Amino acid sequence: MKRGRLRVLLGMAPGVGKTYEMLEEGRRLRDEGHDVVIAIVETHGRVATAAQAEGLEVIPRRAVAHRGVALDEMDLVAVLERHPRIALVDELAHTNVPGSRNDKRWIDVEELLDAGIDVITTVNVQHIESLNDVVEKITGVVQRETVPDAVVRSADQIEVVDLAPQSLRDRLAAGSVYPAERIDAALSNYFRLGNLTALRELALLWLADEVDSALQRYRTEHGIEGSWQARERVVVALTGGPEGETLIRRGARIAARSAGGELLAVHVSSQDGLRTSAPATLAEQRALVESLGGSYHQVVGDDPATALVDFARSVNASQLVIGVSRRGRLAAALTGPGIGATVIRLSGDIDVHIVSHARAGGRFALPRLAGPALSVKRRILGFVAALVGGPVVSLLLLSTGSDDSITTDVLAYQLLVVIVALIGGIWPAVFAAVLSGVTLDFLFIQPLYTVTISNPVHAIALVLYVVIAMLVSIVVDQAARRDRTARRAGAEAEMIATVAGSVLRGESAVPALVSRAREAFGLAGVRLIAADGSVLATDGEPVRDDRRVALPVGDGRATLELHGGDLDASERRLLDVVVAQLAAALERTDLAETAAEVGALAETDQVRSALLSAVSHDLRRPLAAAVASLGGLRAAGDHLSEDDRRELLETADESLATLSILVTDLLDVSRVQAGVLAVSLTPTDAAGVVLMALDELDLGPDDVELALDPDLPMLSADPVLLQRVLVNVLTNAQRYTPDGERVRIATSRLGGTAEIRVIDHGPGIAAERREDMFSPFQRLGDTDNTAGLGLGLALSRGFAEGMGGTLTPEDTPGGGLTMVVALPVAGAAAMASGSSRRTP
Prior knowledge:
Elements: E1 6-11, H1 18-31, E2 36-40, H2 47-53, E3 57-58, E4 62-66, E5 69-73, H3 76-82, E6 86-89, H4 105-114, E7 118-124, H5 132-139, H6 149-153, E8 157-161, H7 165-173, H8 180-188, H9 193-221, E9 233-238, H10 244-256, E10 262-269, H11 279-291, E11 295-300, H12 304-314, E12 319-323, H13 329-335, H14 339-347, E13 351-355, H15 358-361, H16 376-400, H17 406-424, H18 426-444, H19 456-505, H20 509-520, E14 525-530, E15 535-540, E16 548-553, E17 558-563, H21 569-617, H22 620-636, H23 642-674, E18 678-680, E19 682-684, H24 686-697, E20 704-707, E21 715-717, H25 719-736, E22 743-750, E23 753-759, H26 792-802, E24 806-811, E25 817-824, H27 828-832, E26 836-838
Parallel strand pairs: 1-7, 1-8, 2-3, 2-6, 6-7, 9-10, 9-12, 10-11, 12-13, 20-22
Antiparallel strand pairs: 4-5, 14-15, 14-17, 16-17, 18-26, 19-21, 22-23, 23-25, 24-25
Helix pairs in contact: 1-2, 10-11, 12-14, 16-17, 16-18, 17-18, 17-19, 18-19, 19-20, 19-21, 20-21, 22-23, 23-26, 24-25, 25-26
């Protein structure tokens, strides 16, 4: 019997419309004449979904008794007996009731497929086995029901039912997903905007990987070797050298430029195992690749370039990153173009990036002006050219020359001398001139095979021959010196530009300048010491006191110590530039520190001014009222009636209570800002603290709606401080809640954090002003002086952070402000460190 086809509708979260889409497709197929039945569908009370199921044949469910409770499950036997062409099966990852024919619904689906029945099913990305731990990290929720990846990947067709995260939240807030009593908890926990965005990306990337695997299978089955660059896939070649980290990071940046870019690192080892590489370095680079979200691979091949390109083609790579060769010019000239050129030739339509690195060109150093203009290597090459070129020219002239070709012979040797002069300078040229002159006289001038000059003209010619060679070599030497001077000037300009840039960059300028100075002047070690003896920056080997050169920096502000080389006059001049820039960098650092201190003083002064204003204004009112009431009692004596006496006493009592609260708040905010708030963390019941805060404010069911999670674990908190936080937040929420509305308090858990949410439906606060409300003495435009000093929220945030938590504002769906108090759940670690402490 032909196996049925499986079609999976994949969603990022509940409510995106998978079941609706499945039913809509079932109706379309039925209208086209196909035999379609609903094996099982869960509408979850959604009216629109239930409406889509109308008109489709439904296989009755089977009742299964479990622990005395009758539960409904898909009747697999009935569906097999009915044997429709297409069966609609909702929630592929569902776990069946114990006692069912199969433990999992996906096993039921496998039986339907084996029976030749096509199945359309739904599943959310959080139920895919390989993504379960990732989803838990994102949402903090452990998914108990999972389906193996192989089951979903084996589907003949996988479709993502997509919905923008904010649209899903809007659908949820409108009551289209969950009943009203579950909306706030869902929006504040699993259905957060960040959670939904991450889940959406996870679903799309998982499907992209599946599509990529299917594409690779198709290319393999059809023998297609060319790259189909459906996505950016960057392969980085690692040799085991220290430049690998640079290449990996460059490859990661290239891959990150496009959505879904993939990073792969590969190391080619030889079949005989003789190719050298550093295992420890490769292990570190592998860890770096994996930390950047890439994968590490190792292949074996005798020809690294061919093996590298073959690997890149096998993974359908679009770009290949290799390092520039670490070989010198002479080695490259003797051994050929190298791996880079071969990779470029073989790569075809794969883009190749050759990345420069520190190991390729060596460290930055200024070209030396002292010494010969040409390097020792060039002079040696000049002598080699003279020794090799002389015999070669002689053999060619002897085999092709005649008695009348003396002029040609002389010009040929002259050309050799010029070539040697261009290569090695004056001394190899003089050597070539003398050697070629002797050879010319010995082989081509009568009498032959003797070094005898019978004609004085020949002697003059030989002298002129040598002079010409010397003049040419002098020209070459001067050109080399000018070239070196130009390169020196360019290097100095580059260094000065770098030094200036280091100063402009700010904080890292001083160590950058010290490092650059050591490299530029070829020193073994450099360090910068402050006037008090502390080391501000160091680079290279430790500076030895017996071989150091010390230069003052910034009028004795510091001393620059150099070790490991003698500097000429031009280098001393350039070093003065570095010292001046170091002085500027140190001055900039001092100015930044001074500015920071001034900023802190200004902030303190602002708080002090506000405090004085509060003392002079807000404290005066209750103090004056209390003094007036008590003065009235004293002056009137027994002439007051009982009602007047009671009213004065109540006024004095209320004013003194208000004064006590204000003074307490002032002291608390001072302790918070000074960082000396005493906090005693203990396992705390959130519900109990919420009820105590309500009792303190005398708020009842008419004022507050409670949605407390009965399974919420104990919090790691100071119950006294937590009560103060809730009292302050509730007071604000109650003040701005419209008449007829109730403040809502909800508790929930998100991973290792518990949240207490105080939700109002008032006017809310604009996002750009939310941080202002946590500043001391801020009422955000409230001119009611009876509202206090504006310290409540500042204290509340300080108390929450002192307990290791946070206090953050959020928008309330439908309008208003939600204040979220997040605190860690009490655990072994939290309880171990829960003794009395002070906030840092």
